[in-house]
Amino acid sequence: MNVCFAPRPVVFDLDGTLIDSAPDIHACVNTVLRMNGTRPLTLDQVRSFIGGGVDLLWRRVIAATGLPVEAHRDLVASFMTRYHQATALTRLYPHVLETLGILSDRGYPLGICTNKPLGPTHTVLEHFGIGQLFGTVIGGDSLPQKKPDPAPLRAAFAALGADPAAPRGIFVGDSEFDVETARNLGVPMLLFLRGYRKTAPEDLLHRASFDDFAQLPLLVEEVAAI
């Protein structure tokens, strides 16, 4: 039986790629730290901790502040009660909305694959009115695995109609986690340069890079044509 798969889907990371959420994450972290009598962290410190999900964020916060490791679960729980609705300080990067509309109009199935928990992910997508643009949303708690394991990205591509055994999709992200995820799945990576990356772009494997979302539709067209 012949199986028809969708045109090349485009899957996006969220934090540091479509949105700059570091100020909200920073505010939530420092609220919890103040409640525990601990000095606050700077925005740059917290931004450098983002990417591997909430558990890894708080392992890094604990290491930076000297809080007891055994408090990890309670700290995460306290953080999550605030993080679920934290949108006041988050912003879309410039031209994201227009670019998502262009790609959708051109027939590219769009999805999200993030290590952000699914609840806060849906909250922020709806806050910006862009949730309906995505055919699938895979959060950090949607599967047992998180990025850079390829399973979440594979699931996102499959939900958008790609062959799960050999997805011919495009992944757009900003971080070392995203680059490694794309490499582990064997799909082309488009690297957004204004996110939370800590490594020089030339030291990361990617098909192309960009610092303005207005550049992305042409890059997607070029990769899709290969």
TrEMBL record:
Function: Specifically catalyzes the dephosphorylation of 2-phosphoglycolate. Is involved in the dissimilation of the intracellular 2-phosphoglycolate formed during the DNA repair of 3'-phosphoglycolate ends, a major class of DNA lesions induced by oxidative stress.
Cofactor(s) listed in the protein's UniProt record: Mg(2+)
UniProt similarity note: Belongs to the HAD-like hydrolase superfamily. CbbY/CbbZ/Gph/YieH family.
Keyword annotations of the record: Carbohydrate metabolism, Hydrolase, Magnesium, Metal-binding
Binding residues annotated for Mg(2+), in chain numbering: 13, 15, 174
Protein name: Phosphoglycolate phosphatase
A Pfam family annotated for this UniProt entry: HAD_2
Catalytic activity: 2-phosphoglycolate + H2O = glycolate + phosphate
SUPFAM superfamilies for the chain: HAD-like
Origin superkingdom: Bacteria
GO molecular function ontology, one term from the record: phosphoglycolate phosphatase activity
Catalytic residues of the enzyme: 13 (nucleophile)
E.C. number(s) listed in UniProt: 3.1.3.18
InterPro entries named among the record's database cross-references: HAD-like_hydrolase_sf, HAD-like_sf, HAD-SF_hydro_IA, HAD_2, HAD_sf, PGP-like_dom2, PGPase_prok
Signal peptide: none
HAMAP family from the UniProt entry: GPH_hydrolase_bact
Pathway: Organic acid metabolism; glycolate biosynthesis; glycolate from 2-phosphoglycolate: step 1/1
